[in-house]
Amino acid sequence: MDWLQILVLSLVQGITEFLPVSSSAHLILVPVLTGWQDQGLAFDVALHVGSLSAVLTYFRHDILTMTRSWVQSLLTRRLDSESRLAWAVILGTIPVGLAGLMFNDFIADTLRSPLYMVPGLIVFGLALGWADWKHRGQRDERQLTWKDVLFIGIAQAIALIPGTSRSGITITAALLLGLSRDAAARFSFLLSIPVIMIACGLQTAELIQSGIDTDWPAMLAGIVISGISAYLCIHYFLEFIKRIGMQPFVIYRIALGLVLILVFA
């Protein structure tokens, strides 16, 4: 990869990982539209490490508080709001973990064509708009019940389909349950932490087994650029949705889906 490709892919990953627009769809599309060769597994790992570092840094105080309460809950078997939230993140991760074990190879081999992304982009984009318009409320993420968490977790598993967007469908599910926009987004971002960790671990194991030579300067650049852009994206996205909402992302998803139909059909 040259440095332009490194910069573009890192920015695309950092900006789209936490927006409800499907980062996987954009990372698949960039090489298709530019004619670049696939960036390879090692660079994918670097980009996800950057995204992970961003969300860990941004929510570091919340994560520290949740972790302390979670450990305390193991010792006392009593739950407060912070330990409940920590357990909610764990429970919400189980469905996508099981779905990944069962269907990841099929999805990776069969559904990575640009046209397969169109239904996910448009259908789940419309669902996001409807949930934001009709169902959002004032609950926060610490008021979720276990049934609510399971519902959001099952929704997250559907995001394995390219074009769906993990953040988009989990925010949609949370809005349908009456969470506020920023609470839905915060819980979605917290849910991303174990998911990205699992993905990085699996990809790293695959990378080690493959014995592929690693371009360490490119890896480091990808981590830094994707990490900084993802951090800024989280911050400004949370501010943006409080004032404007999800509708601009709905319009973007529909427009992108229509462009894909025109270009690839």
How many individual β-strands? 0
Task: Name the beta content range.
Answer: under 5%
Tell me, what's the shape?
Answer: globular
List the domain count as a whole number. 1
Estimated structural class: mainly alpha
- Counted by DSSP, the helix tally is 11
Low-pLDDT residue intervals, each spanning 5 or more residues:
none
Radius of gyration from the alpha-carbon trace, in angstroms: 18 Å
Average pLDDT metric: 91
Major sheet characteristics: none
For this structure, the quaternary state is single chain
N to C succession of SSEs:
HHHHHHHHHHH
Percent helix range: over 70%
**Gap from first CA to last CA:** 29 Å
What does this structure look like?
The mean pLDDT is about 90. The protein has helices at about 5-15, 25-35, 40-60, 60-75, 80-110, 115-135, 145-160, 165-175, 180-210, 215-245, 245-265. It is built from eleven helices and no strands. With about 260 residues, it is mainly alpha-helical. It has one domain (about 5-265). The radius of gyration is 18 Å and the shape is globular.
What are the defining features of this structure?
EC 3.6.1.27; mainly alpha; single chain; 80% helix
Summarize the structure.
The protein is mainly α. The chain contains eleven helices and no strands. The protein is globular and about 55 Å long.
SSE arrangement:
Blueprint: H1 3-16, H2 23-34, H3 41-58, H4 60-76, H5 81-110, H6 114-134, H7 146-158, H8 166-176, H9 181-210, H10 216-243, H11 247-264
Main location: membrane
Transmembrane segments: 85-103, 115-133, 183-204, 216-238, 244-264
GO cellular component, one term: plasma membrane
